[in-house]
Amino acid sequence: MKSNEVLSPDHKAVGYFINIPRKLLQFHDADHLAEYVLYDLSRDHCFNFNKAAYFVDNPDFDCMKGIAGYEKRESCALPADYWHSPDTLAPGLQQSTFNSRVRTLTRASHKRGSYADEHLVREVAHELGIEKPELCLWNMKHNNHGVLMYEYADANAAASAECVAKGSCLLGFCPIV
What global pTM score does this model have? Predict the structure, then answer.
């Protein structure tokens, strides 16, 4: 690649999120690892989300639980070097109003109820104030399903839905706390 070429949003995101598995291994025992990964994926250098909410849906227990939330305007106060010392990110995440709202949100299983995706998006996006929601769903171990609802900060510089789906699967490797 020539030095004056501009990377597409997909190439920029993939170039960034391929480093996350190494970080997951390095900090596997850190509390709230899913929040760290969502924070990383959501920032300008990767997917550039305005808001993102990660849920785990378990049809066996008829439960969809909020795991982590990211809101761009709340992220400014968080440290830039959080992967070097992950404990520095936890207090900022715990003070995030949006993250707290997502973590307290619990619903009946979307998969078990066989609800249309539009129903889930309309209901949850409204409750979380996500104005232009996008949805990403994927299978996880133990019959769980990952659910990522997000909106881009800049739709003109957005990664493709396929790229978001590939990167979001990294959340499935994080413990659910």
Answer: 0.90
